[in-house]
Every structure is written in structure tokens, then in C-alpha cells.
Amino acid sequence: MPKKKKCPLCEQKMDEIDYKKVELLNNFISDKFKILPRRNTKTCSWHQRRVARAVKRARIVALLPFVPAV
User: Fold this and answer.
1) Among 7, 14, 30, 50, which is most exposed with the fewest C-beta within 10 angstroms?
2) Is the pLDDT score of 43 beyond 80?
């Protein structure tokens, strides 16, 4: 049986994901600025919900774009 992969955010013991950390959030969005699913990012469900919330907040505050620039 293959070993289960650990959540990278759990390994770093990150409790809060801040929407102002754009470098971190860029790892969780695609080149079309969609939020990547858990199976691609290998995050646990608890952290995935917080990542999605932080990305959405960063978009509202205009730290991340909603769509790629044309």
C-alpha cells in the first residue's frame, strides 16, 4: 500500500493562511487564476478551505487578479 502524502501546510504547522502572503497563494492558483483542487496541491481539507478563503479575499482587495490580463 502506498504511503499517504502529508499536507505541506500541516508539515509547516501553519494555522492561519494570510491573504496578504501573495507568494504563498500563487502556489495554489493555476495559470488561468483558478483555485487548484486538493488532489493537485496535496493539502488537507481544513487547509484547502482556508486557502480558498484567502485567495478570494486577496482577489477582493486586488492583490490577486480574478482573470489573466489580456
Assistant:
1) 30
2) yes
